[in-house]
Amino acid sequence: MPFTPSRRTFLKHAGLLLAGSSLGLSAAPAQDLLIPMDEDQADHLKAYGAVYAALQDGQTVDWLLNYRGGSFLTTATPRIRRALQVRGVSARRLSASNAATLLSTVEADGSNKAVVPLEKAPDIAVYAPEGAVPWDDAVRLALEYAEVPHDVIYDAEILNGKLSSYDWVHLHHEDFTGQFGKFIRYRNEPWYIQKQKRAEAAAETFGFRKVSDLKLAVAQRLKQYVSQGGFLFSMCSGTETFDIALAAHQTDVVPKAYDGDPVDPNALQQLDFDNTLAFRDFTPNLNAREYSHSNIDVGPPPSEMRDPSLDYFTLFEFSAKWDPVPTMLTQNHVATVKGFVGQTTAYSEDVLKEDVVVLAEAPDRPQVRYIHGTHGKGTFTFYSGHDPEDYQHFVGDPPTDLSLHPNSPGYRLILNNILFPAAKKKKRKT
After folding, report:
1. What is the mean pLDDT of residues 107-134?
2. CB contact set of 91 (below 8 Å; sequence gap of 6+)
3. In the chain, what are the domain boundaries?
4. pLDDT for 316
C-alpha cells in the first residue's frame, strides 16, 4: 500500500531543497515527527491517542509497518507536538530529507516493511449496557487511557438504525445467547437481578418474546453492519456468543433456567454454521449451570499451569507489502505476549472457518488467541481473554490501572484495531 502522492511529492521536493543547500539554496526547516513504537517509546498506549488526535485535526499520519515496532511519522505541527508532550509520548523531529530517506527505506523492494497512510479518524462506538463501568472492559479502559473519544451504544441504538454512524464498533463482553453470561450462580445478586430485568424490559419494548430473541436481532444487525463495510471488534465471550447466537437463529439453545422454556431437542442438528462469521462445527454447552458457552473456547490452562509467568502467546509475522491488514493488527514492540484468562480464553483451531486469518497462537497447543476475517465489505477481529494486564479477572476485582502498564503489548493489540479503519477513506454508510 503506497503512501499518498502528495506526501511522496512533497518529501522528495523537500529532500532536493535540503540537498541543494550547499549550492546556496535556503534549507527547509525540520518539519516531521517520528513517533517510535519500539522499546524507546515511553508510553505506547497514549501514542495511539496522540495519533488519533492528529487525524482528528486533519493530518495524515504514516504508519510505518514493521519499522521499529510499527512507528508513526507525521507533520510536526504545534498541535501534535503539544498532544505528544501532554501525554508523555516519545517523539523525534526529523528534517525533510531524513523523513524522505526513511520513507524510501521502508518502501524499498526486499524490505518487509510498508508505509500505510492514515487519513481519517474513525468514528468509534462501544456496545455496552447501561451501568457498565469502563474497568469491566479492556477496550474501554484502553480508549479512556489513550484519550480516544467514543460513544457508548446498546440494543436500542442498534435496533433503531444508529450503527451507520460509526466506522468501528466494539462489542462489550456481551452474551448474545440471552443467558446473561451464564452467571446463574450470581442470580440473587442485585446487579444480576437488575441486568435481567433491564434485558427483559428491552425485549418487551421491541416486541420480542424473550431476551435471546432480542440478542439475536442485535447480532444480525451487527453482522449486517459488517457486510456493509463496518469494522467489528470484540473480546472474550462477546466473540464466542456472537457466533453461537447466529448459528442458533433457527432453534433454541437456551436452557429453561434462563428463558422459561426448554432447549429445542433437535437444537444441535439445527445449527446453521453458514450464518456465522468466524467459527463452524462447534457444540454449544446446553448445561445452564456450567460457565462454559461452547467448545469454541478451550478454557483456561490447567490449574498447575495457570501461571502468568508460563502462559503466553506469539504473534504471527506477516508480509507488510502483501498482507498490510494483518500486519497492522499485529504491530508490536515484542513478538511474544503474556497470556490472560477470560470466560473465553482461547479458540480451538478445530472450529475456525478456513478463511479466518490467525494473528496469534499459543505455542505447542492447538489454540489461537487473536483472529481476523472479512464479511461482505467489512471486517471482524476477535481477541480472546478478558484483560491483558489482569491474568485472571474475577467479579468484583479492582480495575486495572493502565498508568502502571503504559507499554502493555496486550493492550497495544486492542489499539491497533482503532487505527486500522483510518487506513482507507470510506464513504459514510447510509
Report:
1. 91
2. 33, 34, 35, 36, 81, 84
3. 5-118, 124-423
4. 96
